[in-house]
Amino acid sequence: MSKQSEVASQLNQELSKVLERSPADWILVYLSLAMMKMGGHRYGTFLDAATTAAKLAIYSTFLEQGKNIRKTGFLYHVEPKRVKAIVKEIEDAVAEGQSLKVFSSKEPFYVMALPFLWNEKFPCKENESPVRLTGLTPGERKSIEEGLPPGSPRARILDQVEFSELIEMVHNLSQDELPEEHRMPFSDALMMHMRFRLVNSGTVIQIDSPLVDIPLFALASDSYSPKGERERAFAMIDDVARYFNLLQAWAQFKEGTMRGVEVFDIDLERRQEALDELDVTLRNWADKYHTDGGFPMVLQFAAGTREYE
Amino acid sequence: MSKQSEVASQLNQELSKVLERSPADWILVYLSLAMMKMGGHRYGTFLDAATTAAKLAIYSTFLEQGKNIRKTGFLYHVEPKRVKAIVKEIEDAVAEGQSLKVFSSKEPFYVMALPFLWNEKFPCKENESPVRLTGLTPGERKSIEEGLPPGSPRARILDQVEFSELIEMVHNLSQDELPEEHRMPFSDALMMHMRFRLVNSGTVIQIDSPLVDIPLFALASDSYSPKGERERAFAMIDDVARYFNLLQAWAQFKEGTMRGVEVFDIDLERRQEALDELDVTLRNWADKYHTDGGFPMVLQFAAGTREYE
DNA sequence: CTCAGCGGGAGGTCCCCTCAC
DNA sequence: GTGAGGGGACCTCCCGCTGAG
Mean pLDDT in chain B? Predict the structure, then answer.
């Protein structure tokens, strides 16, 4: 964790040279870090989601311009042919339901669905040992079991073949929900990707026991819920999306919307005091004006070190 | 403006079906709308910027994983070959300065640079008429001049050929700053794109006078500064980037950082009162703790209608 | 001026394979 | 395991062209 933070700050310094503080670029970078590094989405998934967003911007302009393909194409430097294809793609998606390539969730499907499928396909009965390898003494089984971190759910420990089967199952399951056009066939590369991701996210633990010469895999978390930095990363995305939504209303001069930025310098010894007071003040403000059954409102705020100018 | 808002809200409703409220997807959509529709960036520019952001996430992980190409590739389902190319690309960019494809500014270069180049290449002297077409009576010249909106800068009015020349010049100027690898040759498609964008952004006005059978072009704003909805759209991007930056510090449990969301319902008659009070309260809070020469801090907030759950 | 179709090239994302350390 | 190389499939972004309303 601390190593990650170090690298991150080092990276930020290097990037400031390259990006030269264009705010939109920073938004994209923050988002990619959150979705790929924290969420574990594929590189291609991020690109697809971004492409979809850009297509929606094109479609939006297409409607505004009175469904004029050529004009829309000129405005964004896109071929009329391509504009037409994009419009058709989106209209089909609206008509038939989900068929655009989007993130659709904070983490990839297989990361979230795997624990359930694991217990379903490889159940571990009360009186059985989670370790089912042949040629092991009860003592050796026990030592492997005890090698697991405390709090691990009671689930069977799989060998590489079983684990690969499970991954293929969960992959096929995730593909079932997708439309025919953009399903991905299962491949070794995909398998390795999912395996690394599951281990990296802490959902699965890989055991390289000296007792057996093959790697074993154990389920590490039963119901899926990220902790700590990962959990906050997801909350961050939620907040930013809502905040963006609020500011968009503000940018359109909609009534009942307000935004503000307060820039100031503070004595570090009073910083925590100030933040605590801010928290209380805003809660009181919201409480003061709250009316049951009233118009739905939200206030978002964030305070911290000023890095931008 | 109102037509745009109508279409936008109609679009939003359609999109909610398709996107199924994944917050990261919404962030991308908001960003694409702001950069492409408001900023006037090309479709390809948005895709390139998003790709660059994803590459940076890969590079970041590459460093964290001890410069292990293969592992990085598995984590994001990217070929080792491609990882290597991405790493090289970024390291070259850091070493040699700017060479990644990014937005780099809120609006494309040519939109901002054109007014200056216009006055430089086609100066309009004090005692000359801005209209330089042959075969027009002084009265006809005057009627064309008076057709311009008030507040237009004094600049020569160009015919289609001159305008195209000017566009090509500003395009070449913008390409000079780019590295050799990804320069775009000038093309008719690009010319039409820039022409539509300049007119659409209000920087240039197209005059289809009945007196002449060819379209004329007039400069509409001298120093470039967007107004109204466009101006707010850019402020919005700034705000979101800073807010994202603050939340990232919060997600990493950095000290002196705070974020909050207050959800409440309000009596519509008291809404404006509440927002005004909020504004004053937060300004007072910042003033209260401000210390000259202290630690740099920023507070951001936004309040409005709650649409998300 | 708009819409329609055709051609081509370049580069990227994906997949698989082998070989040496 | 890792690095480094080969291959091919497919899609998308760019460019150019011509012809029908």
Answer: 85
